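How a chain folds remains the central question behind the approach discussed here. The record that follows shows the chain in one-letter code together with its fold in token form:
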Amino acid sequence: MTDRTKPNQDLRIALLGAPIDMGASQRGTLMGPAALRTAGLATLLESLDFDVVDYGDLSVTEIEDLTDRPPAKANHYREIQRWTRVLSHRGYEIAQTGALPIFLGGDHTLSMGSVNAMARHWRERGRELFVLWLDAHADYNTPETTITANMHGMSAAFLCGEPGLDGLFGEDPRVSLDPGRLDLFGTRSIDPIEKDLMRARRLRVADMREIDEFGVAVLIRRVIERVKASDGVLHVSFDVDFLDPCVAPGVGTTVPGGATYREAHLIMELLHDSGLVRSVDIVELNPFLDERGRTARTVVELIGSLFGQQITD
């Protein structure tokens, strides 16, 4: 592999693990942060001349429960509430240091805390946060619309201020994301009532049919231009099931027909070229379901492309 010009090279990168897996029906994503480290994430970023600080894994064992009433259809609400509060607080602290945070998951409930942290950080600096949701699923359910009651399927809806999880942060600061600043990309599995809600909110969705018709380059450039036009910054929430299962089998919610290895690298390369990415989630990696670490290695390679490494000359 060869390197290329790195507009983000002057930034420090902070790794923060969140070994959380009760937001999904399939347990095992709590091993995700360790798998990403074992696959060489920090070493690769350092090889690209970044200063990398690993803050280790968060813990919620000392966090007291709040006293709000849990929703009827939100599995493991209390545990996830502790995680999102800790993630929001710690992510905000790290962003304040000037580092670029990479949140290592863990299931996609992680984003409820990480995105809130980054939205708060950038709003204080007069810039709005846009979110690119690379995911097979829309994650736009609420406790009222959900079929499974699994909270990793409610992350995007919560971040956009949909009702049902209003007490999740308690008295902690919460910054809701305007639905117009969320781009769902690679979506191919949406529940019927969830789809109705998404249409009502006029969410931007680049599903796999649109990707097949127009190609990832055209569609990602549209996202980039919209962020640039608003002088915004971009948070990439990368769910590993965005990739096709033949590329990334180590996830608990595989959906056929996902992004190919090359499509995914092109997306990451274009995002790198934009210079807009200021925070990243890596979620839903389940090493228990992986094939000898293949998915973890693929994810690390993709993050390498996001931060300036090319596959080819």
